[in-house]
Fold this sequence. Notes:
- It is a single chain.
- The protein is mainly beta.
- The protein contains six helices and 45 strands.
- The strands form nine sheets. It has a 22-stranded antiparallel β-barrel. A five-stranded mixed β-sheet has the order 3-8-9-6-7.
- The protein is globular and about 80 Å long.
Amino acid sequence: MGIRGFDRWRVAFPTVVGVLLACQQAAFAADGVTEEILVTATKRVERLQDVPISIGVVSGKEIEELRITDVRDLQSFVPNLTVQSTFGNWAVKIRGLGSGVTNLAFDSSVSIFNDGMYCGRSRCLETAFLDVDRVEVARGPQGALFGKSTIAGALSVISAKPTDEFEGYVSGGYEWENDGYVTTGVLSGPLTDTVRARVVGHYEDSDGYVHNTLLTGDEPDSHRWALRGTIEWDVTDSLTATLKAEQFDTEIDGRSNQLVSATGTFVALTQDPWAEFKKNNERRVSTATSDEDYDYSESSSYLLTLDQEFGEYTVSAIAGYWDLDYENWLDVDGVAEGFLNTGLSENFNQQSLELRLLSPIGNTFEYIVGGLYYTSDVETRQHSPFGFFPAFLAPVPVGSDRNFERSTDTYSIYGQLTWNVADAVRVIADLRYTDEEQNGLGYSFPVTYPDRRNPVYTPGAFAQPPEYRFNQVRNDDSLDPSIRVQYDVSDNAMVYAAYATGSKPGGLKANDGTLGTQLLAKNADPAYMQKYVGQASITPAEMAAGVKLEQGNEIFDFEDEEAQNYEVGTKMVFADGAAGLNLAAFYMEFDNLQTSSYDGVRFIIRNAAAAEIKGVELEGYWQASSNLRVTGSVGYLDHEYSDFKGSQCLVADKAGNFKDPTCVDGQEDISGEPIERTPDFEFNLAADWQRPITDDLVLFAYLAMYHSAEYDVREDQHPLGNQPSYTKWDARLAVANASDTWEVAVIGRNLTNEYVLQHAYEIANANFVSFSAGRTVTMQGTYRF
C-alpha cells in the first residue's frame, strides 16, 4: 500500500470505526429493533449474525427503493466487492481477486448463483436485478460448500417468492439526466389452496450519459425488458415443487469508450479537424460502417426445485437450464474513420442438476451431503477489420477471425459436518471433490472486409498471423477442504476462526489470433513439439488443417489456480437486536493466478505465480429509534503480486515511457506490485429516516455516501488507466400514505456526478478508457395492492 493509501486509511478508519462504535454504544438505549437478516449461504436458512462467514447482504427493499438496476452499483454497499463492465466480460472481484477480462473463454472466479443455480459466465450478472428478495456476497474461497470456481467468492441473487396472500404493485419512473423511463409490475398470490404464483414484468428505456458530437446523439442508449414467472406447488404435506422461468433482453446502442491520448496511430491518421483526446462526457466516434456501436444480449433460464421432507430430514433437487447469447459491434479506434472495429459474440447454454440432503439440526452432529452435475457449451467469436494499412498493400480492410468452441462436463460431490462440541462451541468441516473435463476447439483464419463490415475468408491476406486450428481435451480435478471453529460468547455475540480453500480449473484460450505464431516458434524446440504436438515440427499448412495438443502446452491452455484463506471474525448484536457489528480479518494466498491483459498488440493470458492479500471488513448497523436507522461499512485491502514474472512493462507517464527504460514488454517482473482494479480502502455510511407528517402521510428520507481510494485499471499501471479516489452521494426523498398503498419518491444516485473508469486499454500506442454513468435523478411512483 502506498503512502497516500496509508494516509487515507489512518485518517478515515478511526472516523468510520468511531461512528460505528458510537452507534453500538447508543443502541443500548434505542427503542427500535431491526428486522433479522436471513441468508442461505450455508445451504440452510440462518441468521446472518450466526453464520461464521464474511457475507455482505443487500436487501430487495434497498434495491427497489434506490432503483439499483445495475450490478456495478452493488460495490457501494458491499465492502471489498468490485464490479466493472468491459467489452466482452464483466470484471468481478472480491477481496481483489477475480478473472481477467481479455480472454473470452474465462469463467468467472466469482461464481454467480441465481436462486441456487450456478452460472459460469460473468454476463449472467446482467439478468440479476428483477424483483429481488436479497443479494448475498460470500467473500473469500467458498469451494467446499458453494462449489465450482468460487475461488474468490460467490455472488448469489435470491428472487422474491410467491406469497400466501394476494398482493402486487406497479411502479413507474422518469429519469431527468438521461431522459429515461422505467416501469415494473408484480402480481403474487394463491391460485388454489396448494398453488401460489408470482409474475413480474419490467421495461426500461434510457438515453446515454455521453454525447457523441459526431453522430449528434447521446450514448449508450439502452432498452431492456424482462419477464419472470414463478409457481410454487405443495404437492403433498411434505413435498414442495417450485418452477421458475425468466427471459431478459437488452439492446444497447453506442458506448462510452473514448480516445484519451494525443499520440498513437489513430491520432496520426484521423482527418477529423474536431477530434478530441481527453476524458470527459463527450466522444467523437463512428465505426464508419453500416452499423454503429451496439451490444445486444438475451437470456433465458428455467429452474425446477423439489424439496421433500422425510421427518426432520430434507432432500432437495435443483435442476436448471440457462441460455445466454450476445453480439456486439464496437468502434475501437476512437475516431471518425473506420480504422479499427471489432465484433464479439457468444452463444452459451448450460444444464445442471444438484441433489442435497440436510440432516436435522440441534443434534450433536449435523450434516449436509450433496452432488452436482454440470454441463455447458460455449461458442465465442471475435473478428476485427484493420483499415489503416496503405491502399497499395491492403486495398480493403484485413483482419483475423478468431473462433472458440468448448464443451464442459463437471462432476462434484461435497459434504459438511457440524460438531456441536458444547452449547457454545461448534466445529464445522467442509469437503468437496470436483472433476472437470473440457473439450475445446480454437481456430483463427485471415479475412478481408470488402464491405468494411462482414468478413470473407481470404488465405494469404496481408500482414495476418498464420491460420491455425487447435483441438485439446483438458482434465482437472480438485479437493477443497475448509474448517471453521465458532464460539458463542453470549446469545448476542460470537467469534470464529476459519481456514478455507478454493480452486478453479485450468482452461483454454479463445480470442488470441497469435496462437499459431507462438506454436510455429516452438519448432526450435523439438522436445516440446514431440511432447505436446506428437511430432518434431509442424508446417503452417499442417497447423491450418488441424492439430491436437496435449494438456500443459501453455500456448492453447493455462493452468488451474488455487487459494487459501485464513480468517478470524466476530458478529455482535446489541440492545435486543437494535444494533449489530460484524468484523472479519483475513489473509489470502493465491497460486497460479489466472490473469489476462492486452498490450496493444497481443493478448497475454497466463498464470501469475502468486498473490497475497490481507485485509479487514467491518459492517455495522444501528436502529437508533423507530424512525432512524444508520448503517456503515469499511473495506481495507493490502494486496500485491508476491511472485509475477513475465508481465507488461510498468508505465511511468502519460506518454507511455517505461519506468525501467531497459524493460522488454512481456518480460517485466511485477512481484510486489499491487493488483489492478483493486482499491486498498473504501467505506460507506448511510442514514434511513421516516416520520409521519399528517395522520395519513409519512415522509421518508435516505442519504448515503460511498468513498473509494484510487486504483489502477491496467496491469501496467499506465497513468491514463488510473482511477483517482472518489466519493459518491445517493439520496432519496419520498412521501407515502400510512397504509403504504402508494408512494411518490425522488431518487438521486451519484449526485457528485463521478464518472468511474470501467475499462482502460491501449492499441497501436493509442490509449482508451470507458466509464460508468454519472448523476441520475428519478421521479418514481408506486401503487401497491
